[in-house]
Amino acid sequence: MKPLTSLIACGCAAVALVGCGSSSGSDEPSPSPAAKEATPSASDRAAAEVCSARDDIQAQAQTLSSLTADTATRAGVTAALTAIQADLQKIKAAQPSLSADRKQQVQDAATAFETQLKDIVQQAIAGLGKSDAEGQAKQAADSLESAVKESLEPIDCS
User: Fold this and answer.
1) What is the number of structural domains in the chain?
2) What is d(CA 117, CA 141) in angstroms, rounded to the nearest whole number?
3) Torsional sign, CA 139, 141, 147, 149
4) pLDDT bucket at 8, cuts 50 / 70 / 90
5) Statement: the pTM of the whole predicted model exceeds 0.85
6) Has residue 46 been placed in a domain?
C-alpha cells in the first residue's frame, strides 16, 4: 500500500471511530442581566459558531485536497479529519440557539454534509484495495471538498 493510501485509510478509520456523537450541554453559569445586554444574543453567538466551524471545515477539506504522497502524513490526515468531525459537532450543537429559519437551513446543510462525508469515507475505504489506491484517495479528498461547497457554503454567514 502506498504511503498516501495508508494515510487516508488511517484517517478514514479515525473518522469512522469518532462517529457522529452528540455534544453535551454547557456547564457555564448564566451571565447577569446586565452582562446579557452587553453581549451578543444567543442566536448571534450560535450563528458565529456555525460560521466559524463551516470556515474551518472548508480549510481542512482544502488541506486534504492539496496533499500528495510526498506531503501527507498520518498525523496530518487524521488531524484534519478529526477537526472536520469536531466542527460538524459544533454546528449541530449550535443549532438549538439559532432562529427558526436559520436553524432549518443549518440543520439541512449539516445533515447533507454528514451523509456525504459518510459516503466519501465508505468509498475511500472500499477503494483501498484497488490498484489505483492513490488516485482513489485523491478522489475522496476532492469529493470532500465538493461536499463542503455543495452542502455547507450555502449557509448564510454574511
Assistant:
1) 1
2) 10
3) negative
4) low
5) no
6) yes
